[in-house]
Amino acid sequence: MKKLAGSLIAVAVAAGALTGCNEKNSAPKVLNKDKPLVFFNRQPSDPQTGAIDMASMNWNDNTYYVGFDAAGGGAVQGKLIADFLAKSDPAVVDRNGDGTIGYVLCIGDVGHNDSKARTEGIRRALGTWAGSPDPVKIQEGKVNVGGTEMKVVELEGKAMTGTDGSTWNANAATEAMGGWATKFGDAIDLVISNNDGMAMGCLQASNFPAGVPIFGYDANADAIEAIGAGKLTGTVSQNVDAQATATLQVLRNLLDGLTGDDVVTSGITKNDKYGNKISAAVDYIPSTKALLAQNTGVNKDNWQLYKAGMRDEQIRQSNAPEKKVLLTIYNSADNFLSSSYLPALNYYAPLLGLKLTVVQGDGQNESSCLDKFTNFGNYDAFAINMVKTNSGRDYTDKLKY
């Protein structure tokens, strides 16, 4: 009996040791509400006032926004246009010789902060800013054209909304441009757009006035090629590779357990432990928990530097353990996201050890993304690109459970 009792005690001790070992080695389960969350490209905000939705940004300590400097980008686009005019011949730019520079403006979405910033940047550069990005609130401006001060008027600004309700719509821009060309004729001296998709849409109008300077924003691949071919005059790069990498890098840092400043600097403004660091300038705004890539103007002088496939060579393959990320794209038809942002995400994600599951919406109904935002237990982190900028809570509410 003594021998048997001793054996039972030994088994019990061994079993206890094994249980303790398993408890020690098993990682605690992370609740969905505590997992890393990055909003990108569309900053949670009020579509009327532009106020940042800090309730969404403070969802948890692991919530951040990654985008670009919208106000700075608007200023860059405005300067690109003003610099072009300053070097132009007034007799060439002023097509009807009336001493006035007339332009038409494609507005992406009157409720979108980026659209508002670009409209403001354009109007400030041309002197037509009247204190509001509203399509009809404008004033007469002045601008330097080849050393001559000339009057500027915004002939018409219009929000490009498709028949399906989607904003930033290229087809709507084609239709609008056709109407403008008929309505204003040679009074149109410039065509300006809040993004490349709508600018390229304008060029598709059968009666687009040949030779009229046209400016976009985004530096999409087709727009860059159009600059090289002399069809598009200029655009603005919001450094999509820096944005895409920063979106992924913040998630990687949080998943690796980094805290404090390291979350927004490691692999972004300083080398991470894998040797990665974003080449382009990216600034962190603590008050809004936002990482913002800087913008650069693109024209016939430097367009070759922005051709498709020019990836950041400072982001290399790492040995980071694979983690799974559920990522939403607000509109599968959005030219910038589909042709520039998503390919960049798909390029950099494997280098950083992240496996993406991408769900895409229709650009009109939040449910087109939200209904696919599910099965959270299968993922380690989330990246959200909303249909509407005031929909942040719709996503965080789903993560409560």
Give your account of this protein's structure.
The structure is a single chain. The chain is an alpha/beta fold and 401 residues long. It folds into two domains: 32-70 and 240-292 and 312-398, no CATH class; 71-237, Response regulator (Rossmann fold, 3-Layer(aba) Sandwich), CATH 3.40.50. The protein is 35% helix and 18% strand. It has helices at residues 2-25, 54-57, 70-86, 90-93, 113-126, 170-184, 196-203, 221-228, 240-255, 262-265, 335-351, 367-370, 392-398; strands spanning 37-40, 63-68, 100-107, 141-145, 148-159, 190-193, 214-215, 235-237, 282-285, 290-293, 296-298, 323-329, 354-360, 381-384. Strands 9-10-2-1-14-12-13 form a seven-stranded mixed beta sheet, with helices on one face. The protein has a five-stranded mixed beta sheet with strand order 4-5-3-6-7, sandwiched between helices. Strands 8-11 form a two-stranded antiparallel ribbon. Helix 3 (70-86) packs parallel to helix 5 and helix 9 (240-255) crosses helix 11 (335-351). The chain is elongated.
User: Residue ranges: pLDDT <50 for 5 or more in a row?
Assistant: 1-24
Tell me the domain tally: 2
Per DSSP E runs of 2 or more residues, the count of β-strands stands at 14
Structural class: alpha/beta
Strand fraction equals 15-25%
Biggest sheet overview: 7 strands, mixed
**Radius of gyration from the CA trace?**
26 Å
Distance linking N and C termini: 54 Å
Shape verdict: elongated
Look at the structure and give the mean pLDDT.
92
Count of DSSP helices? Answer: 13
